[in-house]
Specification:
The chain is α/β, with parallel strands linked by helices and about 190 residues long. About 30% of the residues lie in helices and about 25% in strands. The chain has five helices and seven strands; from the N terminus they run βαβαββαβββαα. Strands 1, 2, 3, 4, 5, 6 and 7 form a seven-stranded mixed β-sheet that branches. A hairpin with a 2-residue loop joins β5 (about 110-125) and β6 (about 125-140). The longest helix has 16 residues, at about 45-60.
Length: about 190
């Protein structure tokens, strides 16, 4: 079965290809010749994920899935949330986003946060959504060289290391995206023969 993952983010693509382990042929937007800048104008992660997956399905007629992820920080009333990618501005700089979070949390003891990913799967025009959540803490400084986005400042509760200090396979086992994609894979395997 061919599936389009509505992204050109190579980090996300590698994470998910590793998890799929060859059970499905995974295509990215480049593979189908999609150069559109797919908008994410919804007020929720669920809305953004659905907007992206239906855009691809409606334009190309291909079964696909899309995700949207937000970092939700308790002391900041759930910010940056749906605005995580462009929290510090439209240039979507991970470094600037992390610096802004660290500055806003300066002198705040409550460092509780969670990553939440919503995956929207569209097969034959029907949508199913999957959610993955990982609880953790915002560190006081960046740690680690791997990963992307906010990984260097996020430490999941299950570990003493930041996401950016973990090998990809370890991160995938406990990450928000890993948990949502695991649900997606189980669903696809269950429905493969139907």
């Amino acid at each position: 079965m061919k599936l389009v993952f509505a992204t050109n983010n190579q980090h996300k693509l590698q994470e998910i290809k590793q998890m799929l382990n060859g059970s499905f042929e995974l295509l990215c937007l480049n593979d189908i010749g999609c150069e559109d800048d797919i908008s994410e104008n919804q007020a929720t992660l669920e809305g953004n994920a659905a907007e992206k997956s239906f855009f691809i399905y409606n334009k190309y007629g291909l079964n696909c899935f899309a995700d949207d992820t937000g970092l939700e920080i308790e002391a900041l009333n759930g910010e940056p949330g749906v605005y995580s990618a462009r929290y510090a501005g439209e240039e979507r700089s991970a470094g600037n986003n992390m610096d802004l979070v660290l500055a806003k949390l300066d002198k705040i003891n409550n460092r509780k946060a969670r990553f939440r990913t919503v995956v929207s799967l569209v097969i034959d025009g029907n949508e199913t959504q999957f959610e993955g959540i990982v609880d953790g803490q915002i560190l006081e400084e960046k740690r680690g060289e791997t990963g992307f986005g906010y990984d260097p400042i996020f430490k999941p509760d299950e570990s003493d290391r930041s996401f950016a200090e973990m090998p990809m396979d370890e991160k995938n086992k406990i990450s928000h995206r890993g948990r949502a994609i695991q649900k997606l894979i189980e669903y696809l395997i269950r429905h493969k023969g139907k």
